[in-house]
Amino acid sequence: MRIGILTAGGDCPGINAAIRSVGKTAITEYGMKVFGIASGFSGLINKEYAELDEPQLSGILTFGGTILGTSREKPYKSVAGRGPQVDKPKLIRNNYREMGLDALVVIGGNGTQKTAAQLSAEGLNVIGIPKTIDNEVFGTDVTFGFDSAVWIATDAIDRLHTTANSHKRIMIIELMGHHAGWLALYSGIAGGGDVILIPEIPYDDKVVARYLEKRSKNKKAYSIVVVAEGIVKPKGISAAHHIAQIIRKNTGLETRETILGYIQRGGSPSPMDRILATRYGAYAVELIAEGKSGVMVSSKGDTITSVPLADVGGKLRLVPADHALIRKSRKMGISFGEK
Fold first, then answer.
1. Which of the residues 162, 164, 301, 306 has the least number of beta carbons within 10 Å of its own beta carbon?
2. Helix (H, G, I), strand (E, B), or coil: what is residue 291?
3. Does the CA dihedral 90-95-100-105 come out positive or negative?
4. Residue 317 has pLDDT above 70, yes or no
5. For the chain, what percentages of helix, strand and coil (3-state, to nearest 5) are there?
6. Is 11 labeled as catalytic in the residue annotation?
7. DSSP assignment letter at 29
8. Same domain, 132 and 178
9. CATH code assigned at 125
């Protein structure tokens, strides 16, 4: 059998561990030929690929990023006002067949899995593997990349505690998460955040200000505010800057902001992400060997299973407002900015 692998969307720790697992399992266990496709769906459109052998897959377990490269190419997205468009899905179907592929492994986040579902509906044998630091891919308990990002973000929050205490300030840290607040929630709790603002829970400016003012009056030397980037909808203003303006205006307290940015997506994967990516990759190949397709590898509890791609594409796994961590955090006095 001949299988292709591509990685699409934003990079995150653990992708190379998944590539390694897919390739080594396919070659060593099943005698398959494995082809790495460059730059996400762009590589499939432009027919940019190369065969991967077992030695090429050795030594990449700990590497961040992706050895295949990635892009945010969305082959089904039409661009208005640019004249006749190339039929990219048709090019992908033709190139898939010309490459003689029996299956395609697609490693990516929510948008990538939606494209995978569309390709599957057109007759390609596709297996999805979920990755993203945001942890918002529908149909799985966890994506690889998330644990590494929590470690990175928590370390940054830990460091802000010392400078906040030294200067007796409010420190705001903005983390990634356009729609889902998993990263801000987990790292905020792990890092001892006093206020945690996530997109799923509407916050009130005055509630946040009163909470921080009360801490100051109660002789709390400083406060840590953890915000997900998606809590502010208008483009052109960062969540951290927006919240800092609110705090300064309503309390007059000295406030500084930090935007962690792309650091959250870089570097070597955590041990847990290496293991999860390895399990996902190996299971994807098992599914191919069994003749299954049109599914995404998924984690349910401690079990690796699969869910139909048709049930995943276009959906998001958001933080429930009554999540156990949120309930317990409220009891500890952490504010989520609600009225």
1. 301
2. coil
3. negative
4. yes
5. 40, 20, 40
6. no
7. I
8. no
9. 3.40.50.450
User: Residue 108: which residues within 8 A CB-CB, separation 6 or more?
Assistant: 7, 8, 9, 40, 115, 116, 128, 129, 130, 131, 132
pLDDT in tens, 112-162: 999 999 999 999 999 999 999 999 999 999 999 999 999 999 999 999 999
pLDDT in tens, 247-271: 999 999 999 999 999 999 999 999 9
Q: Across-strand partners of 307? A: 296
Task: Give me 121's structure tokens.
Answer: 């509906």
**The one-letter amino acid at 41:** F
* Angle between helical axes of 15-24 and 271-289 (0-180°, round to 10): 40
Q: How far apart are CA 32 and CA 34, in angstroms?
A: 6
pLDDT in tens, 46-90: 999 999 999 999 999 999 999 999 999 999 987 555 655 789 999
Please list, in sequence order, all residues whose beta carbon lies within 8 angstroms of the beta carbon of residue 178, skipping any fewer than 6 positions away: 134, 199, 229, 230
Annotated catalytic residue: which of 134, 147, 194, 273? Answer: 134
Into how many domains does the chain fold? 2
At 291, the amino acid letter reads G
Within-domain flag for 319: no
List the domain range (segments joined by +) for residue 188: 148-265
Q: Identify whether 329 is part of a domain.
A: no
Q: Over the stretch 174-201, which tens digit does the pLDDT of each residue have? A: 999 999 999 999 999 999 999 999 999 9
Q: Do residues 188 and 157 make contact, with C-beta atoms less than 8 angstroms apart?
A: yes
